[in-house]
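Our preliminary data section would be incomplete without showing what the modeling component actually yields. Below, a chain of 227 amino acids is followed by its predicted structure, encoded as tokens that our downstream tools consume directly.
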Amino acid sequence: METKGARVLVIDDELQIRRLLKVALSGHGYQVEEAATGEEGLEQVALYKPDVIILDLGLPDMDGLEVIKRLREWSSTPVIILSVREHEADKIQALDAGADDYVTKPFSMGELLARIRAALRHRAGTTEEPVLYFEDLKIDLARRRVTVGEEEVKLTPTEYELLKNLALNAGKVLTHRQLLRAVWGPPYENEIHYLRVYIGQLRRKIEADPSRPRHLITEPGVGYRLL
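Predicted structure:
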């Protein structure tokens, strides 16, 4: 998806934050709409049909988590949380509820812009595309074939399922629980050591330098994302 002209909806009760984001994002070619409450935000999503939503958790009429849950009943639009809540538990709760990413206030505009681009790429990749590219990493979903550069990488079935789930949600943070449930099943959703072992194995196979990964990124205490 071309980011120029992409529609961004900012749902935040702080007027100064909304003004700041409107000026900054408009300056980078985005079309920006605003909402000051959760209810207004949900209405704006239906009317405005944004490409990405920036959502504060501390809204005056309802918690941002409730906004996400209601939104996910009918919309898959990427949601980036922008909040002062910085505890891991808050991040995990928001991501498990259906948010795509989480940025804490105070924030760097450069970081937020990068997260918006990642969310837009994820949305663009939700079409039925059988081959996914991440620079030198290629994942052929139809053939279940993974290559790095010109070299085919041999993965175990579990390694492949883990990589596939991350690839289909490229740029999005997937929590430990979400990945464990998707790959191993609900009874294993607390077995975080499984993930650490398999992520380590995947990095040794797909990263040029496993100790400084470019593709498989750790979100400390929360989960992983593929870039």
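DSSP finds eight helices and twelve strands in the chain. The chain has two domains: 7-124, 131-226. Preliminary results of this kind motivate Aim 1 of the renewal.
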